[in-house]
Amino acid sequence: MMVKSKQEIITQDIALKIKHQLYKPGDYLPSENQLAELYGAARNTVRKSLGDLTDLGLIQKIKGKGSLVLDSSRYAFPVAGITSFKELNETLGMKAKTEVLRLEEIEQLPANIKVEQVDADKFIFLERLRLINDQPKVLDRDYLLSPPVNFLPMEEAQNSIYAYLEDKLGFVISYATKEITVRKVDDYIASKLKLEADRRAVLVSSKTYLEDARLFEITESYHHPDDFSFFDFARRRKI
């Protein structure tokens, strides 16, 4: 098991305090100096943790005032970053679990997935159902290109793909492109997510790349539309 860094410990502790409203929306967190003293950490480490919390949409830094706690009453998934479900679960305390539905090798991608050029001999297909408070919220379909991912143990599929690739195989995951649409879904997806009425889900399609710009993962994440919000922070930049 990987030992958590001081930065990760601080980020997760503050996130849990926000979740349990020890820090309420509208409150300001203690100053960087106060947090550094509280956690026995360098101020730069605290600053990085506050950056993580900003990226998660839990706080907003206000110049001259500090770190303002935002309303995070709904589960929100960051769009711009590359964060695993396990990392979000640990940081946000979502009481989530994962069920692996399928793990198998396939020769071709489904016809609905459009990729200009794929340098792979085969694909590892992984389908997982994400549950929060025992209710199905996300159906993830991952297509891992082989090579570079030649094998995925079941226990790693159950746990965290990214932890396996980064910590055990030494991969450096760099960036991703993402598209968000609302789609009608088939009977299978509707039954897994317990959808009714017109059976629409939020589909987040992503392609994730290594540091050498190689595509290694294509993902389709079908989200239940009733419980999730997706966020990103946009800041004005003069050109």
Key features of this structure:
about 240 residues, Arc Repressor Mutant, subunit A, Chorismate lyase, 2 domains, six-stranded antiparallel sheet, two-stranded antiparallel ribbon, 10 strands, globular, WH_DNA-bd_sf, transcription regulation, DNA-binding transcription factor activity, DNA binding, DNA-binding
Description:
- Pfam families: GntR, UTRA.
- InterPro entries: Bact_HTH_transcr_reg, Chorismate_lyase_/UTRA_dom_sf, TreR, Tscrpt_reg_HTH_GntR, UTRA, WH-like_DNA-bd_sf, WH_DNA-bd_sf.
- It comes from Ligilactobacillus agilis.
- This is Trehalose operon repressor.
- With about 240 residues, the protein is α+β, with helices and mostly antiparallel strands.
- It has two domains: about 5-70, Arc Repressor Mutant, subunit A (Orthogonal Bundle); about 75-230, Chorismate lyase (3-Layer(aba) Sandwich), CATH 3.40.1410.
- The chain has seven helices and ten strands.
- A six-stranded antiparallel sheet has the order 4-5-6-9-8-7, sandwiched between helices.
- Helix 1 (about 5-20) crosses helix 3 (about 45-55).
- It is globular.
- The model has no long low-confidence stretch (mean pLDDT about 85).
